């Protein structure tokens, strides 16, 4: 397995794939269609968790979700991790079966970043003292894992 660790900001563009007759992804954008997409995402999240733990981070919470309203989705943070120095790390895990269409990291759009920030703000409201925080992305492209520390800011 090839691994990379980066420290760069993400671009603000993303791409939507074609939809099949049932309104689901048809796989032409690098995402598998149907249930395979969920399985790929779950496997990537488990891989990212193990990968980050091997690098000294500890798990605080998985899949922290917040609603924007009674029928509106707000946001979800895939992994909330803690660095040994106490920094709270909100991690978005993205997976693509291949590197086409900009790869997994490029799929974290500005809208996705906003929803992650919303969920993180909600999470932080529960804490009595605010720790230092950052937003990381773990991108899984086939067999390659790339860790983008401080991938974007909350502004």
Q: How would you sum up this structure, described in words?
A:
With 155 residues, this protein is an alpha/beta fold. The chain has a single domain, classed as Trna Endonuclease, Chain: A, domain 1 (3-Layer(aba) Sandwich). Helix content is 23%, strand content 34%. The protein has two helices and six strands; from the N terminus they run E-H-E-E-E-H-E-E. It has a six-stranded mixed beta sheet with strand order 1-6-5-4-3-2. Strand 4, helix 2 and strand 5 form a beta-alpha-beta unit. The longest helix has 20 residues. The radius of gyration is 15 Å and the shape is globular. About 17% of the residues have low confidence.
The second-level CATH architecture is 3-Layer(aba) Sandwich
Q: Order of helices and strands, N to C?
A: EHEEEHEE
Q: Tell me the number of strands.
A: 6
Nearest-integer average pLDDT:
79
How many domain regions?
A: 1
Please state the overall shape, judged from the principal axes of the Cα atoms. globular
Question: What is the end-to-end distance?
Answer: 34 Å
């Amino acid at each position: 397995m090839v691994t990379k660790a980066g420290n760069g900001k993400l671009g603000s563009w993303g791409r939507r794939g074609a939809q099949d007759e049932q309104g689901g992804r048809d796989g032409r954008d690098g995402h598998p269609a149907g249930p395979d997409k969920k399985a790929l995402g779950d496997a990537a999240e488990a891989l990212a968790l193990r990968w980050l733990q091997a690098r000294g981070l500890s798990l605080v919470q998985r899949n922290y979700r917040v609603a924007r309203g009674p029928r509106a989705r707000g946001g979800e943070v895939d992994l909330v991790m803690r660095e040994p120095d106490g920094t709270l790390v909100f991690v978005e895990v993205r997976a693509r079966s291949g590197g086409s269409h900009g790869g997994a990291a490029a799929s974290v759009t500005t809208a996705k970043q906003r929803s992650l920030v919303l969920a993180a703000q909600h999470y932080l409201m529960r804490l009595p003292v605010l720790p230092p925080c950052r937003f990381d992305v773990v991108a899984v492209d086939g067999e390659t894992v790339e860790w983008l520390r401080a991938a974007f800011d909350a502004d």
